[in-house]
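=== Per-residue structure ===
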Amino acid sequence: MSKYAGSLYYSFGIAADLSASQWRGVVVNGNEQVAARATVTINSGAVAGILQNAPNTSTQMARVCMLGSSKLELGDSIAAGAIFRFNTIGVGIPLPVTAGAVPIGGLALEGYTGASVTGGLIEAFIRVDYAIDSTSVS
């Protein structure tokens, strides 16, 4: 994508090797460190943002995009302009149209479909929101 939006980044220490989590949603654990979403239950694994690098030792800092434009790893096809959420391992999937409040991750700026959707990358606008009522989203 040729467009650019300013972004807000924050640096954190890491709880474990995150080399497989680049471009995925990550969480902040009770020790003020970034961890893979599947490993943390604090705040129900609420995503803080998208990991921008691939730190693999405790001497490396994690760079997390908390607001703005970022690449995003996908777990399902998505249309440009669709609202996405994070699945249990932190990859982006379309927001389901179901009742109740559903945490969202942001807006897909590009669409992506194909036989190998899992692991595909798109440009997305990150705006983590923890209480959107998905019944009002069309």
